[in-house]
Amino acid sequence: MITLVLRRLGSVLLVMLVVSGMSFLIFNYLGDPVNNILGVNASLNEREELRRTLGLDQPSYVQFWHFLQRAVVGDFGISYRNRLPVLELILSRLPATVELVMCATVLALGVGIPMGVYCALRPKGAFSRLLQMISLVGISIPQFLIGMLLILIFSVELRWLSAFGRGEVVQIGWWSTGLLTDSGRKALIMPVITLAVFQISMIMRLVQGEMQEVMRADFIKFARARGLTDRSVHLRHALRNSLLPVVTVVGMQIGSLIAFAIVCEAVFQWPGVGLLILQAIEYADFPVMAAYLAMVGFGFAMINLTVDMIYLFIDPRMRRG
Amino acid sequence: MSRSPSFLRRSLDSDLVWRLRQAPAAVLSACVLVVMVVCAVAAPLIAPHTPFDPGTLNLMDSRLPPAWVQGGSATYLLGTDEQGRDVLSTIFYGMRISLAVGVAAVLLSVVIGVTLGLIAGWFGGWVDTLIMRLGDVQLSFPTIMIAFFIDGIAKAVMPPDLNQATRFYVVILAIGVADWVQFARTVRAATMIEKNRDYAAAARLSRVPGIRILFTHVLPNTLGPVIILATLGLGVAILTEAILSFLGLGMPPTQPSLGALIRVGNDLLLSGEWWISMFPGLALVLLVLSVNIFGDWLRDALNPRLK
Fold it and tell me: What is the dihedral of CA A106, A111, A117, A118, to 10 degrees?
């Protein structure tokens, strides 16, 4: 088991090395750190001076090492556009995105798993077929279209919800949350649904498939033979054993939720990290791009590692591998 | 194709056709797909207007609703956008670009993936380790994220006119590079099995050069699953392109794909002009849905073990 954990850690380190390498390339070679600090009007002498103090005259591997040292403490330089430290910018936008992604995950699990269980137990029923059709559409319809449809119905036609922004937020330390105010919660509704539809469909299909498989297993027959109630057979035996792959997929899906949050934020002008990176690309703001890449890479690596650890924890068979 | 009736007879009796008859949804999706591809390819011939010729546009006709809504005009069946372009015609042209980008991107993934997979499976050792590790690193990111980064960095680096001119190829490159790993994995696994089969050994004994065994004997035997993956990948590629274009990182408004059309329409959504974005959106959903249904069916039909 320890070798397995070490192997996973090794691959996480590899991912982080590649990602930080690319982030370094963007920061150092695409962006121009000297212009970044002095502006374009500085004299040649000032530039040379700064190049030396920044260590830009040193070989690349030394620069990379310094870049890593600064990255670890979160120093990614100053944004070209806002003239603010990149870390500060990202941290101020992070709560909006994290809240969005977390709410979408909770919704997806809360709706997707029961739907999947229902469809697995009554695969031929009319309601199951309806759910299956909806989920097929849910997988095929692009997210931005769902968001636009919601805006069209609830903002333009019915005028119930605002199409833009986060509503009022409450500051708790450096974290800002929209969950504590009415307008904040209302503003969350449409973006969260938009982000969750794909995940709901995905989780539903996955739970259904796994559970139908498990229901055919011998231990389910034995459980029935022992005279257990349907409820106990379905939920304690079948569902539990079909949730293993769901854990993996949900982990991977949180990763892609971060990616799809960019789209969702663009539709609803949600002031999160996704909108920040879109603006950074628009204005060639390389320090922000480099920092975003590094942080997203770190986030994905951590999610993957956590998923693997949970897997080891809940499935004893894996520990022997 | 052969003209002899026996060939026709045989194809109609074939297993694949029989399976197609068993699956009405697959037949329907195949028909929708054929119609959309024909509309896209023949867009210059069958589109009712020429939306990208500024000479034919009339600003008086801008923002007209669809024909059946009050204020609509029969000349513009699905209405017009803010420049007075006929929405139906822009959809035909948009599908052309969406399909072209999607197909080219999948082909690029296939070429990269199959090549690297063959090399990894054939040579093994550190070459194999290097390629597959690289794939592992890439797989820890979602495809859309990788395409987003390649595309975003390219856009940020290039000056605007160069950017405009190369957009089509950059998008294909971004999506193609983002999706090669699945092909490489499949082909590598198949190559490792095929290279030790008797027929490969026989070829080796008769002194056929290794590279020729690889391409004429091993490669064809690894391609079955690749075709299935490529069909399923086409839906993802078209969707990825639409997302990039919607974010303003894909095709420019002068050469719009379905995603870029939706982006243009999105700005007008709040003023109630829904048809400018929703009809291209509907076309996109139909296209992706029928590709997905057909791809699912193809996977089940060609691979009975999965049933």
Answer: 170
Tens digit of each residue's pLDDT (9 = 90 or more) over B102-125: 999 999 999 999 999 999 988 888
| A69, part of any domain | no
Residue A17 lies in a domain: no
Domain count, chain A: 1
Is A140 in Cβ contact with B285 (below 8 Å)? yes
| A176: helix, strand or coil | strand
Do B152 and A289 count as a contact with CB atoms less than 8 A apart? yes
The domain of A173 spans 87-285
Among residues 106-145 of chain B, which lie with CB inside 8 Å of chain A? 133, 136-137, 140-142, 144-145
Complex prediction ipTM: 0.79
What pTM value is reported for the model? 0.82
Encoded amino acid at B205, one letter = L
Does any CB of chain B come closer than 8 Å to the CB of residue A141? yes
Mean pLDDT by 10 residues, chain A (321 residues): 78 82 78 66 75 72 77 74 79 86 88 85 81 80 85 79 73 72 78 88 84 78 78 76 76 79 87 86 81 85 81 69 49
* Residue given tokens 């867009």 in the structure block: B43
Alpha carbon distance B150, B173 (integer Å): 8
Residue A166 within any structural domain of the chain: yes
In a domain, A105, yes or no: yes
For B68-108, the pLDDT digits (tens) are 667 666 666 667 777 767 778 888 888 888 999 999 999 99
- Looking at CA atoms only, how far is residue B125 from chain A in angstroms? 18
Decide if B289 and A163 are in contact by the 8 Å CB cutoff. Answer: no
- Contact status, residue B80 vs residue B86, Cβ threshold 8 Å: yes
- B159: nearest CA partner in chain A: A284
Chain A neighbors of B98, CB-CB under 8 A = none
Chain B residues touching A141 at Cβ < 8 A:
285, 289
Interface touch A142/B247, C-beta < 8 Å: no
CA distances B83 to A286, B51, B63, B65, B77, Å, are 35, 9, 8, 13, 16
